[in-house]
Design brief:
The chain is mainly alpha-helical. The protein contains 8 helices and 2 strands, in the order ααααααββαα. The longest helix has 29 residues. The chain is rod-shaped.
C-alpha cells in the first residue's frame, strides 16, 4: 500500500511544478484514467486487503479530487478569462493566487481546492465568455457612431439646404442597436459594462429624437 501511495503522490508532485501555460490537461486525464482503472480501484485483487484502510481511501479521494479539477483547468485556460475573473475566482475559493506570477503553476490551482467549487468555476468561465460577447457588441456600437461618415450631410440638389444621406440606414442602426443595448443591459453578465451600456442607451435615444425632429423639418 505504501509503495502505491508513494507512486501516486510522486506523480501528483511532478504535475504540481508544471507552469500554467505548459499544463497538458489531456495527458493528465489519461494518467488519471490509468490510476483509477489499474492502480487505485478498490476492486482490484491487489487492493483487496487494503481497500478499507484509511490511508488507501484518502489516496482514492486525492485521485478523485484531481479528476474533478482536471476539466476545470481546461476551463480556466479560456481566452475569455481576464484579471477580473481571476480575482473573482479568488473570492469564490477564499484564497489568493496571482495569475500574473511567472511562476504560476498547477500547485497554485490545486491549493485552491477547486473540487469544492466545480459549479461556481464553470459558471465563472461561462460568464467570462458572455461578458466578452457583450464587450464585442458594445464596441461595435461605439465604433459605429464614432465614424464621421455616419452623418454625411450634402446639399439637396441645387439648393443650399443640407440633406442627410442614408437616413433609412441610420434609423435601422438606431433601432437594432437600441434593442441590442436593452438585451445586454438586462443580462446578469453585463455588470462590468453598465455605465457604458446606459450611456449609449441614452445617446441612441437622443439620436432617435434628433432624427425624428429632422424628418419633420
Amino acid at each position: 500500500m505504501w509503495d502505491l501511495i508513494s507512486i501516486i503522490d510522486g506523480q501528483f508532485e511532478s504535475w504540481k511544478t508544471e507552469l500554467w501555460d505548459n499544463i497538458d490537461a489531456d495527458n493528465i486525464e489519461q494518467l488519471l484514467k490509468n490510476m483509477k482503472t489499474n492502480q487505485t480501484a478498490p476492486m482490484l485483487p491487489a487492493n483487496k486487503d487494503i481497500k478499507n484502510y484509511k490511508a488507501f481511501q484518502a489516496l482514492n479521494d486525492r485521485v478523485k479530487n484531481m479528476d474533478v479539477i482536471r476539466p476545470l483547468i481546461q476551463q480556466l485556460h479560456s481566452e475569455f478569462m481576464q484579471p477580473r475573473h481571476w480575482k473573482r475566482l479568488n473570492g469564490i475559493c477564499g484564497k489568493v493566487v496571482n495569475r500574473n506570477d511567472p511562476k504560476f503553476c498547477l500547485r497554485d490551482i490545486i491549493d485552491l481546492e477547486l473540487y469544492k467549487f466545480s459549479d461556481d468555476v464553470n459558471e465563472l468561465v461561462e460568464g467570462a465568455q458572455k461578458e466578452a460577447g457583450i464587450e464585442k457588441k458594445l464596441n461595435i456600437i461605439i465604433n459605429t457612431w464614432g465614424d464621421d461618415q455616419v452623418f454625411l450631410f450634402k446639399e439637396y440638389k441645387d439648393t443650399k439646404i443640407l440633406d442627410i444621406g442614408g437616413l433609412e440606414e441610420i434609423v435601422e442602426f438606431v433601432d437594432l442597436q437600441s434593442m441590442d443595448l436593452m438585451t445586454m443591459n438586462a443580462s446578469k453578465d453585463s455588470e462590468e459594462f453598465k455605465p457604458d451600456l446606459l450611456k449609449w442607451q441614452k445617446t441612441l435615444k437622443t439620436i432617435d429624437t434628433v432624427i425624428g425632429l429632422w424628418v419633420k423639418v
